UniProtKB/TrEMBL annotation:
The keyword Signal applies. This is Secreted protein. It comes from Roseiconus nitratireducens. Keywords: Signal. It comes from the Bacteria. Residues 1-26 form the signal peptide.
Amino acid sequence: MSRHHRVLATAVLAALSTCFVPSVSAADTETKAEKVNVFDKGQMTVPESFERTEPQSRIIEHEFKVGEGDSTARLTMMGAGGGVEANIKRWQGQFSGGDAADQKTEKIEAGKWTIHLVDASGSYAERMGGGPFFGGKTVQREDYAMAGAILAEPEGRLYFAKMIGPADVVKKNRDAFVKMVKSIAE
């Protein structure tokens, strides 16, 4: 094939390829909210603004980044045990100082599920390596907050959702977090 024919063939193929590009409507480009399955007993609808990321630990089932740029919170989800009160005490014990009004718990019913909401703020003692029950370096994160939820399904199994990060990010996204955990009843 001569150079002239190759140039002509390339031009024809380029022209034809634009004829067969499927049209994309606004409905096609809309993102769908992700659903997280919980024990095959319910699903939580994760806000579209929460970005899925690779879990930082093998025990974490789902992990999302909440916020934008350098100021983001970490949302983790997993089935766990240990009892409701013991976990609330452990979670709150990871924070010191903070505004007393931000240290609270609330129990709500969502369909057949009981949800224990846990809020904490202040200086967060983040464990680096070793997991939540084993040693490892602890780093103090100042002006941090947590919005946590322990979802108790009717048969008694527990599922944890915790959003921890800079206090302003957590507080800004708390309503979306609460809406997400309540969606388990839908």
